[in-house]
Design goal:
alpha/beta, Chemotaxis Receptor Methyltransferase Cher, domain 1, Rossmann fold, 2 domains, seven-stranded mixed β-sheet, 11 helices, 10 strands, binds S-adenosylmethionine
Length: 289
């Protein structure tokens, strides 16, 4: 093992074709993430940075470490956080959230069951999408203005522990809130003494952040969702894998429930139980029945 400073002066280690193939298949098998040839440098830079922290000098030794039993499982969690793209924003694709709000207003207005609304953010990252959905639900309830109270809950799932931790904290730098209209900022956030904005408790207590690898959807005990929101995640998966994931999500929609995907994230996918939402700004479907 070399000293940290000697290592830091080394150029990025070359990755052999075999090493690249091993890392590619490990990442794809475990997370679905496809590392294309174009992202090889991204992989090398991030692996090297982590290897330097650990004093490991070659990719094969680090591979052994990551795949070695229980200790490997812990290291895998750390590595995944470095490699998964976690970029997100509040109301990232505004039209999709508008469509969700209208759908919920309509659902509340016509509901005879009194069942709470269930929403799910799949690949939720640090929570911005989750709170955007919670705000849509809260606003829909205000708009529907029914005398009886309507309950709702938002499930938030991601593969990354650190992303989930941030989401649960529900605290954000004001710079991250520039897409939130002032009226909603005042209604659903409180400014804290540390200068961060925190989501109000009445939304936080309606959320549940939990780890779920989308490759394990078949075993997820989540059903009867009114809204499933899955954006900017499928792009990292192979085409056949995207379709398989979407088919699994459809099975988790309540009859009449809505699935919202990122525009352009799946081409030509159809499902016999779904009807497309007639709004060309979004890629969304409702479940028949
Ligand atoms: C680019 S972020 C998108 C966040 C949010 N959906 C949005 O549109 O702003 C992608 C998220 O997907 C998560 N992710 C990647 N692979 C995953 C998998 N196999 N299972 C669950 N989440 C995954 C990442 O950890 C990351 O938080």
């Amino acid at each position: 093992m070399q000293s940290g400073s000697a290592w830091a002066l080394q150029p990025l280690a070359e990755m052999t074709e075999d090493e690249f193939n091993d890392w590619q298949s490990l990442l794809e098998t475990r997370s679905g993430m496809v590392v294309s040839e174009q992202r090889r440098m991204f992989l090398q830079v991030n692996l090297t940075a982590r290897m330097r922290e650990l004093g490991v000098s070659d990719y094969s030794s680090y591979y052994q470490k990551v795949t070695d039993g229980a200790c490997g499982a812990v290291e895998w969690v750390v590595l995944l956080d470095r490699l998964a793209v976690q970029e997100t924003q509040f109301f990232r694709h505004a039209a999709s959230f508008e469509v969700v709000t209208d759908f919920l207003v309509n659902k509340i207005a016509n509901d005879q069951t009194g069942k709470p609304l269930s929403l799910w953010s799949v690949g939720c990252s640090s929570g911005e999408e989750v709170w955007s959905l919670a705000i849509c639900a809260a606003e829909a309830i205000r708009t529907a203005n029914k005398n009886k109270s309507v309950e709702f809950g938002v499930i938030a799932t991601d593969i990354s522990h650190s992303a989930l931790r941030k989401g649960r904290q529900a605290k954000y730098d004001p710079k991250r809130l520039d897409r939130v209209p002032v009226e909603l900022l005042e209604r659903y956030f409180t400014m804290q003494s540390d200068g961060l904005y925190r989501v109000v408790d009445r939304l936080v207590k309606r959320s549940c952040f939990t780890r779920l690898n989308m490759l394990d959807l078949a075993h997820a005990p989540i059903f009867g969702m009114d809204v499933i929101f899955c954006q900017n995640v499928l792009i990292y998966f192979r085409r056949w894998q995207r379709r398989e994931i979407l088919n699994r999500l459809v099975a988790r929609l309540a009859p009449g429930g809505m699935l919202v995907i990122g525009v352009g994230e799946v081409a030509g996918w159809q499902h016999p139980d779904l009807e497309p939402v007639a709004d060309e700004r979004v890629l969304a479907f409702t479940r028949k029945g």
